[in-house]
Amino acid sequence: MTDQAEHPYVQPPVRLPLSGDTPLEPPAVWEELRARCPVAHATLPSGDTAVYLTRYDDVRGLLSDPRFGRPTEQDNAARMAPEGAGGAAATGSSAIRTPNRGEPHQRWRRQVGRYFTAKRMTALRPGMARLAEGLVDTMLAEGAPADLRASLGFPFPVYVICDLLGVPAEDRDRFSGWSDSFLSVTRYSADEIRTAQEEFVAYMSAHIAAKRAAPADDLLSVLITQSEEAGGAGSEVEGGGLSDEELVSTGMGLLVAGHETTANSIGKMISLLLADRALWERLLADPSLVRTAVEESLRFDSNLGFGLRRYLGEDTEIGGETVPAGSTVVCSMPAANRDERAFAGADAMDLARTPNPHLTFGVGPHSCLGQALARTELQVVLEVLLARVPSLRLAVPAAELRKTEGLLVGGLSEVPVSW
User: Fold this and answer.
1) pTM of the predicted model, to two decimals?
2) CB-based contacts of 160: which residues, under 8 Å, 6+ apart?
3) How far apart are CA 220 and CA 226, in angstroms?
4) Are 156 and 407 contacting, i.e. CB atoms less than 8 angstroms apart?
């Protein structure tokens, strides 16, 4: 779709992605949009137009609505990426075989979500702590300055998700390239994306076949076994079963989400806490604040990427405006997380903030399945760094940190630190 239906919203549209003066600062236009144009036009990198939401209640309301899911190739939706540059996550490609809406989507969530409980993640915590300690020890032994992203932020969640999926961690460099192509908006060409996707599908298909032949105690083995016991996809047994295509897509999606987003979150969390030394010092003085500090860093992160997209299959009222059927809506969770209507002192980090109903993991029927895992990983990393490297500091001014570019998700290309 090259032209979105006309909307009665203020022109000219904002151009996505927005950015602040530095990678850790929010775009100044968010405050103006929330105040004067909370249901706005936005131009996507493709040139198509979407609707852009920045208020907390509007974002939460739409994400909670079970009628709407992410755009797919079957929808006449606004394109996120320029022709040929978008990976499967940006285009809603049919390569993603997990159900997107309705009861089939809930069936898939029931199957996969059984594994990602807070209780199960707590049981994994001691092993995560040992892994993080080993990576930090190696970083310290190699000396300062170091890139915290390369030393800890990237390898830690990769090792964790590989272990959960029963995938060899030594393949992690291949996963990184496949993941970036999966999330590409403008970074890769069509040929590069197609090749990476074919390789990724072939790899995960072979992995699923190997797990079926010799199941272990990892998540994919559990899903395969449960699906076979449930009688396969479409079974009348409660929860049903996952098809081979759904299993492959689930493995791919979890591998991407399980390392890319968490690796980015680790780097941004530590950068935010070190950019204002008083925050780091407060945590050193009171480590019991780690859990609420993690939640606040998730809320305060202004560099999450484009936000979650929803395709409206019917006219929908949002913020007092009627948004017509056929619209693509971009929900800016980081803008909503800075809404003073929902968070007192929203533009300041409060490490003890509670409650903290931020929207970083989404909300409702499409909220992040792995949020208990991500929270546990972030808490473990922060606890280990506070204990092992209390003198940790940024090796460059925060304003000189560099954002990753061209992907659906936001992050820092490196996090230079010293101690």
Assistant:
1) 0.92
2) 124, 128, 131, 258, 373, 377
3) 10
4) no
